[in-house]
Design a protein that fits this description.
about 180 residues; mainly alpha; two-stranded parallel ribbon; 5 helices; hydrolase activity; nucleus; nuclease
Length: about 180
C-alpha cells in the first residue's frame, strides 16, 4: 500500500490516505486527494506543506531546490530536510508502535481493503495515544522509517510551475538570505 500522510510537527496525523496500491505515484495520490483544495484555502495564512523531490513544487507545497546555487538555497534545503524528518519519524514511530505495519513484525495477509482499514485504525490509535499522552516504551526506539526514493515529477503546466518556483524563491529570499 502507498500511504500518504500529512502530519504536524508533534507527529499528529492531520490527513491520511491509505487506499492506493504501492504502484501509484505519490504525486498522483496528492492530485486525487482533498489536500490541494484545503491548502489552497489555507495559503492566504502562509501555511505550507513540505514534500520530497518526488512531488511537484506548488505554491503551497515546498520541495527541495534540486541544484542549489546560493548559500540561501543551501540553507533552505537544510532547513527543509530537518523539518521533513518529522514525517520520517512519524512513520517510524507508527511502525514501531504497531509492529504489524513493519516488515519485521510480520505481514498483513488480508485483502487490500482490510489492510487499508488496519492502517487507518493504527493511525487513529496513534493520534489517540498522542492526545492522551500515552508513553511510548521501547528499548531501541523507532526505526526511523524507510522511504523509497521517488523519481521527480514532470509538471505539465510550465506557467504554473514558474509561479510555484517564484513562490519557493520568495520563501528562500524572505527566510534564508
Amino acid at each position: 500500500m502507498n500511504v500518504k500522510m500529512v502530519c504536524l510537527t508533534d507527529q499528529y496525523m492531520s490527513h491520511l490516505n491509505a487506499m492506493f496500491p504501492g504502484s501509484v505515484h505519490d504525486a498522483c495520490i496528492l492530485r486525487n486527494s482533498s489536500i490541494p483544495y484545503v491548502m489552497g484555502q489555507l495559503q492566504r495564512h502562509c501555511v505550507w506543506l513540505l514534500g520530497d523531490s518526488g512531488y511537484p513544487n506548488l505554491s503551497w507545497l515546498l520541495t527541495p531546490v534540486r541544484n542549489p546555487r546560493t548559500r540561501a538555497e543551501e540553507r533552505y534545503n537544510e532547513a527543509h530536510g530537518r523539518t521533513r524528518r518529522v514525517i520520517e519519524r512519524t512513520f517510524g514511530l507508527l511502525k514501531a508502535r504497531f509492529r504489524c505495519l513493519h516488515m519485521t513484525g510480520g505481514s498483513l495477509f488480508y485483502s487490500p481493503k482490510k489492510v487499508c482499514q488496519i492502517i487507518v485504525a493504527c493511525c487513529m490509535l496513534h493520534n489517540l495515544a498522542l492526545r492522551r499522552q500515552v508513553p511510548f516504551l521501547q528499548e531501541d526506539g523507532p526505526d526511523g522509517g524507510v522511504v523509497a526514493a521517488v523519481e521527480p515529477v514532470d509538471s505539465e503546466d510550465e506557467e504554473a510551475e514558474e509561479e510555484d518556483m517564484d513562490n519557493r524563491d520568495s520563501v528562500i529570499q524572505q527566510y534564508f538570505q
